[in-house]
Design a protein that fits this description.
The protein has 83 residues and is mainly α. It is built from four helices and two strands; from the N terminus they run αβααβα. It has a two-stranded antiparallel ribbon with strand order 1-2. The longest helix has 13 residues, at 10-22. The termini are far apart.
């Protein structure tokens, strides 16, 4: 398991970038979660989920990883969102 290390102030910049992209709509991965289950929970197709999490590797999820579940990108991916 790897650990992310941040220089002073860089964690705050990282959080601001996440909020700018996702708004305040993020979810932390829990033990046993999968991309499919999270997408289903938030009524997203897998296409929309991957659109708003473009560099995500679903085979390497880790606990407390932040994933976007809504935000600016979701508006662009509206065609993929379930009603």
């Amino acid at each position: 398991m790897s650990t992310l290390c941040f220089k002073p102030g860089s964690l705050q910049r990282f959080r601001r970038r996440i909020r700018a992209w996702c708004g305040n709509k993020v979810v932390g991965v829990k033990s046993g979660d999968s991309c499919f289950a999270i997408a289903l929970q938030f009524r997203l197709t897998t296409e929309a989920f991957h659109f708003i999490n473009p560099s995500l590797n679903c085979d390497a999820l880790f606990i407390d990883q932040w994933l976007c579940i809504d935000g600016k990108a979701t508006k662009a991916a509206k065609m993929f969102t379930l009603l």
